[in-house]
Amino acid sequence: MRRISAAVLRAGARAWLGASALLLGIALVPASAAGVLAVAVSPLNGTPDASPYTQISFLGVPSNEISGVSVVGSRTGSHPGRLEGYVSASGASFVPTHPFAQGERVVAAATVGARGHTQRVSTTFYVARLSGYRPPAAGAPAPAKAGTVQSFASQPTLHPPTITITTSSPAASAGDIFLTPTHGLGQSGPMIINGQGGLVWYLPLNTGEVATNLQVESYQGQAVLVWWQGHVPGNLGVGLGTDEIYNTAYQHVAAVPAGNGYQADLHDLQITPQGSAFITAYSLVDADLSSVGGARDGTLQDGLLQEIDIPTGLVMFEWHAYGHVELSDSYSQGPSSAGTPWDFFHLNSISLDPWGDGNLIVSARNTWTAYEINHVTGAVVWRLGGKRSSFKMGAGTGTAYQHDVRWQPDHTLTIFDNGGVPKAHSQTRVIRERIDWAHRQVTLVSRYVRTPGLLAGSQGDDEVLGNGNSFVGWGEDPYFSEFSPTGQMLFDGHLPAPGQSYRAYRFPWSATPAAPPSVAVSARGGQATIYASWNGATSVSSWRVIAGSRPTGLQPIATAPAAGFETTITVQSSDRYFAVQAIGASGQVLGSSPVR
User: Fold this and answer.
1) Cα–Cα distance for residue pair 179/478, rounded to 1 Å
2) pLDDT digits (tens, 9 = 90+) for 89-121
3) Phi, psi (5° rounding) for residue 156?
4) What is the pTM of this model?
5) Which of 496, 452, 450 shows the shortest CA–CA distance to 473?
6) What is the spatial distance between Cα 277 and Cα 37, in angstroms, rounded to a whole number?
């Protein structure tokens, strides 16, 4: 039987790939072997805790070149199913008609390749024994205190937190700021503000739901808003929900749910140019934790990533930390009891390689390590930091409980180094590191800290802007800042304490909502006060008030410059009906409100 080839790897990493492949029993053939296809088959060979509801994913070969699929469980026997092709890449998922039995061993195989050049590929994995643990529900938000939330006459359902800007240098970047307020007072939801802290757009979520990771990405050649929303169970520190994609009219484009019976986690969503998405997810499984001082029948919180074909929702690739990373590599406090989940890994970011080799780097908070993952075999190619780093870590390069490890175009890595909690560093910092491949050494390129210093126990990010500045969200602490390349703090703002925003970003943003502008009217004694707003609009220069004695045939009676999210206009008028028109810079009508 011909073996699956690994993707082409950098020469300096081949030894690490070989060692990792042995951990999972993966047989590798050099990528130069003639005629050998690089096909990723998920669940990956050796996976110890696949979902009972898993698909069998074949990524890297056209769907019409996949045949003879055989899926056999050690207890459930042969599984019939259907083969469904991907839209964003070559490949297909075999979707079994019924689930696997918990704890059983499964062997899946298929013939792949064009006629005359076929090969047999296979994977052997084990199905998880799912934990019966039920996390406590998150508590209800506290009522808002005076001055901590905003209110608008024309948008009475919106109560976003008040934002305070304390530092704003002329050297700070242009662009709006993207936040996801949580853990504070009042509503939670995705939020866009301008550089002065004024509201641009807000989407309040249902009570008990939160949003994270609001940012601008590209999908099908268009700028889109993406974020995660769902529930965060008490004491797990992960999310159960769905990733959302909206266009520049704030209309729903697509949802990205996790596949294989999981729910999408709050930590990351990265859309690829091809139209797939890398997301994070978590599972709770029974596991023997005796090697780390836990129970033989313990509960493990496993971290995994999936690549999802957005148009179909099919799982294209799936990688589990458990089975690839030793439990003893964790710095997390050991399992406290058999029934309490132990989060040994805590995957919190995914970044594609700048080399275009298809590989990716993931960050694990609780092992203090970033891992290069082979996108075909799932093997750990190398480790940066932690107990078993593949490199000699230079002065100042070690991280603790870090988040948001990102490749940059110059092949350096940026890292939000939390440093706690428990406290491992004196303060949280943002660092950039460079790997010397020839000497297997890591050096510190730059380091930014906020003054006064912060120690963010969780969350956080570092976004490198187009001009070289860094925009930093401080996660658990309610601050967001911008730094110059020399480390000067150019911009700083915050949510009201104890609010948090999982990450914070700065992007140029232009949007015209599909929904019409909103208007509220307070009229008395021949005078009317008009309140005009358009949630999410970025191009309104002024507002025109139109009025009349009947709801049709309204005429202009006043115009005023746009002043923040909601503009107040007072007019002398005995008219009964009013509406407003949003006016652009060239005098064009961008949108009209309903008549009130």
Assistant:
1) 10
2) 999 999 999 999 999 999 999 999 999 999 999
3) -65, -15
4) 0.93
5) 450
6) 23
